[in-house]
Design brief:
Number of strands: 8
Strand content: 15-25%
CATH topology of the largest domain: Rossmann fold
Order of helices and strands: HEEEEEHEHHEHEHH
Oligomer: single chain
Mean pLDDT: 84
Low-confidence stretches: 2-35
CATH architecture of the largest domain: 3-Layer(aba) Sandwich
Shape: globular
Number of helices: 7
CATH class of the largest domain: Alpha Beta
Strand order of the largest sheet: 3-4-6-5-7-8
Radius of gyration: 21 Å
Number of domains: 2
Structural class: alpha/beta
Helix content: 25-40%
CATH superfamily of the largest domain: Alpha/Beta hydrolase fold, catalytic domain
Length: 240
Amino acid sequence: EMMKLGVTVLILFSVSYALSSESVFRGHLLGYDIPPPKVAVSRVEVATDYFTQRLDHFDPSNTIVWSQRYYVNTEYFNATERETIFLMIAGEGQASVSWMTGGAWIEPAEKYGALLFELEHRFYGVSHPFDDLSTENLRYLSSRQALEDTATFINGMNQEYNLTKDAKWIVFGGSYAGSLAAWLRQKYPHLVQGAMSASGPLFAQLDFPEYLQVVADDLALYSRECVETVKTAFTQLENW
């Protein structure tokens, strides 16, 4: 068993090395990577703030709270004409302030006079409920808790900015965060009037071969031989 574990680790290390080589970065050939949003010059300063969240939204006896980082841009907000709010849900990574002044959502934000927010996901960036990532602490890292974080944040901002019941919240997200956006709209239709889910894997499943195909495609950008080598190695492990 220890030998099998060692071989598995070696395979995963080799895959990691291939994906972090000079030829491939985050699954894209260097020079062909998806660029960050272009940052426009903003007339107002993008603000960084922190929202107090409960650690466990499903246990009333748990009174532990923590600080969740968010960004806000009020440059386009026109509350006299309509109350439109755009919320970017950050996924499994640090929230990027560049989204506050760049990206495809800026044009409709200007058009509809939207207030812009970006909310960092719990346990990522600086939004950590704990100082360590022990197994005991990581049980609070879940999409269910993240959805409750976002719904609580929306209610909090409605009060903070004195928004009326007619305020229209539109949430945005890509990949995992795209799933959160769609689920939020489904679970809280009274809070969220629309969701833009880009490439969101909405239907959770234990056997998810489509994801492995994405990994294989990324490896193939480095080397088709690498894909076949990894496939052969895992077949040998399964037949051990």
